[in-house]
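Researcher: Here's the sequence for the chain we discussed earlier.
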Amino acid sequence: MALRSAPVLLLVWVAVAFRGSSFGASSHSLKYFYTAISEPTQGQPHFVSVGYVDHQLFSYYDSNSRKRQPRVSWMEKAGKEDPQYWDRNTRMARASEEIFREGLETLRNRYNQSEGLHTLQWMFGCELRRDGTKGGFEQFGYEGMTYITFDKETLTWVALNPQAQITQRKWDGLPGYNEHLKAYLEEECIDWMKKYLSYGNETLLRTEPPVVTMSSRTEVEDGMETHICRVHGFYPREIDASWTRDREVWLQDTFHGFLTPNADGTYHYWLSIQIDPKERGRYRCHVEHDGLQDPLDLELKEPTDSKSNLGLVIIGCVVAALVVVGVFAGIAGIVVFIKRRQDGYRAASTNDKGSSSSDQGSNQAI
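Model: Thanks. This is the structure I predict for it:
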């Protein structure tokens, strides 16, 4: 893999992490992403650490500002409730920044690489689903590719390449270490997530129903019809939107756009289908969302929009998706490999009240 492609693969890694809970019943999540870069370009930080609650950026630190800061107004409540919250997390981030430099050097030597652009990555988090079940994940990456992942069900690490087997044997051999990580992901992380949800309840726990509109056109070449169902202005992010034929989900000749945010914090989504106009009455755009009392089933209408107008609709959706990708790329100091010294591990508490930080995943030397 070319080293210059690492930031692109890093972006893909982040996008996949967010896409995992895009659809279905509403749930809540707390996720952290860290990145260390050995030779950042001018102005780009060497180290970035960000936290997300329900896909909303709430906490940020980088090696340029060297200060952990809130990214939403409701996180100011954390400092009022605990006056040492931001100073404590700033000190931890600064310490981690130095440790990351050592981690980059360790893996560069392990892979027998020359100096240059290298990236270390870490991403972890937890999820509380509507049915009460809990999810948690933790994984590390090097050069934009997955390096090692934690299987909390078997309490073991899974190495993705021979170099990672060194780390796997080391971490699996630490008494109680993997049990500590499982407890964090299933207990402490969930407790912090609930705390942050209480801070931002007016924003994070609100519901806004989607506005659903339809547009269509007739293909000149073969007389087939293309219909687009646009779902706009909804919150929370989770939504179930699909085409149905005779009340059954229909995937043939369909295309799904990106689920992307609006400037006001709501989301939009679109999906299209190509059909024989003789069967138009059999199809519906089916939408389910927490903001709707009952599911919506919109029937297809005879095309009235011109081909050019529909093309503008498609182009607009694609441009919106690219803008979102650009936002992710701008964040992309993002996904990180972090290691913390063993004394930090001993000091970490699995009790929410006794914990010094909400982001306490793996902290052992790689």
